[in-house]
Amino acid sequence: MQFFANLVLVVQLLSAIAIIVLVLVQHGKGADMGASFGSGASGSLFGATGSANFLSRATAFAATLFFGCTLGLAFLSNGRPVTSSGTDNVLDRAPIVAPAASGAAAIPGAIVAPAVPASIAASGAAN
């Protein structure tokens, strides 16, 4: 499982670097021929922008790969420990119940509150 998480992390890092490089290589809309005529709307000079070129499609693919790896890493590192039996269920994560500190009989399954120090109890009773 750790090997798979490392593999997904490497793919995520490579896709992030690819996104950075592809975005920096592409030129904006203002860098076309229309910008040299003083017009800010270069796309309207030669018609509407057509279908996506190779760089924009590669950027979209790298972004999809990046988000997929991010979801995969979130799923793989959810922080739940796997027990020795290989399964993870609610009963394995149940809190451990301490026996009653006083002479009273403990109720099975009850969670005992921690004892309050005498100095805190005395200051609370004085107010």
Automatic annotation (TrEMBL):
Q: Determine if Heme is one of this entry's keywords.
A: no
**Matching InterPro entries:** SecG
Transmembrane regions listed in the UniProt entry: 54-76
Instruction: Kindly give the Pfam families that the UniProt entry links to this protein.
Output: SecG
Q: Which domain of life is it from?
A: Bacteria
Q: Where in the cell is it found?
A: Cell membrane
Q: Which UniProt keywords apply?
A: Cell membrane, Membrane, Protein transport, Translocation, Transmembrane, Transmembrane helix, Transport
Q: What is its main location?
A: membrane
Q: How does it sit in the membrane?
A: Multi-pass membrane protein
| Family (UniProt) | Belongs to the SecG family.
What does this chain do? Involved in protein export. Participates in an early event of protein translocation.
User: Record's PANTHER family?
Assistant: PROTEIN-EXPORT MEMBRANE PROTEIN SECG
Q: What is this protein called?
A: Protein-export membrane protein SecG
Q: Which organism is it from?
A: Pelomonas dachongensis
